[in-house]
Amino acid sequence: MTANKAKAVAKTLLEIGAVSLSPDQPFTWSSGLKTPIYCDNRLIMSQPQARDLIEDSLVDLIQSHHPDVEVIAGTATAGIPHAAFIADRLNLPMIYVRSSKKGHGKQNAIEGSFHKGQKVVMVEDLISTGGSVIQAAHKVSQAGGQILGVVAIFTYGLASGQEAFNQVDYPLHTLTDYPSLVDYAVQNHDFKSQERTLKAWYQDPEAWSDRAKQAN
């Protein structure tokens, strides 16, 4: 993605509230980490104009990096709607991958069908550690799919996520990332005075979180 496209997507995410920044009153992730950012890309589904921008951009990303894709795979649950929109635009089969097998029926981990050897692109909405989409990709690979790579809307760009993808052969491409979003927010929203603390979180999330906990 170009810098202009990354900022356009960041702008959209901020405008529809899919991303919220609150360095003074941090959010708490399920891990317990204090953070100045909260991302809920599920809101994109409800905003047709934003949805068109995001899905068209994801299609462009796939066609640029994986033009030979044969199957689009979504991760449960947030990646599913985006995979569906993309598969429809590309007129391709779609599957989705459960976090765990169903407890009844055929006990499927993968819903939908594909042929062994088909080339698959994984779709995720958000990359933090990368664990869920990498696990999903492994399931598709074990079932015979050829994983071309992963595309996602947004990544925090954290070292733990980058390290996870470095350890597997799944190229990652995203529409935008935390640094691009902060740059846009500082330039176009009321975050100029908080630029330093927003960038400090990205540089060392654990230390930032510890300071936030002590302040409270």
From TrEMBL:
**Keyword vocabulary terms for this entry:** Glycosyltransferase, Magnesium, Pyrimidine biosynthesis, Transferase
The coenzyme or cofactor needed here is: Mg(2+)
Whether Transferase counts among this entry's keywords is yes
List, for all copies, the residue spans of the domain called Phosphoribosyltransferase.
48-154
Q: Name one GO molecular function term.
A: magnesium ion binding
Reactions catalysed, semicolon-separated, are: orotidine 5'-phosphate + diphosphate = orotate + 5-phospho-alpha-D-ribose 1-diphosphate
Query: Annotated pathway, please?
Result: Pyrimidine metabolism; UMP biosynthesis via de novo pathway; UMP from orotate: step 1/2
Transmembrane segment boundaries: none
* Source species, domain of life: Bacteria
Q: Which GO terms describe its biological process?
A: 'de novo' UMP biosynthetic process; pyrimidine nucleobase biosynthetic process
Q: Which Pfam families match?
A: Pribosyltran
Instruction: Fetch the CDD domains from UniProt.
Output: PRTases_typeI (cd06223)
Name the top EC class: transferase
**Its Enzyme Commission number?**
2.4.2.10
| Sites where the protein binds orotate | 128
Q: Does the keyword Lipid biosynthesis apply?
A: no
Binding positions (5-phospho-alpha-D-ribose 1-diphosphate)? 98, 102, 104, 124-132
InterPro entries tied to this protein: OPRT (IPR023031), Or_phspho_trans_dom (IPR004467), PRTase-like (IPR029057), PRTase_dom (IPR000836)
Q: How does it assemble?
A: Homodimer.
What HAMAP family does its record include? PyrE
Return the similarity comment.
Belongs to the purine/pyrimidine phosphoribosyltransferase family. PyrE subfamily.
Job of this protein: Catalyzes the transfer of a ribosyl phosphate group from 5-phosphoribose 1-diphosphate to orotate, leading to the formation of orotidine monophosphate (OMP).
What protein is this chain from?
Answer: Orotate phosphoribosyltransferase
What is the species listed in this Swiss-Prot or TrEMBL entry? Alloiococcus otitis ATCC 51267
Question: Taxonomically, what lineage is the organism?
Answer: Bacteria, Bacillati, Bacillota, Bacilli, Lactobacillales
Chain's gene name? pyrE
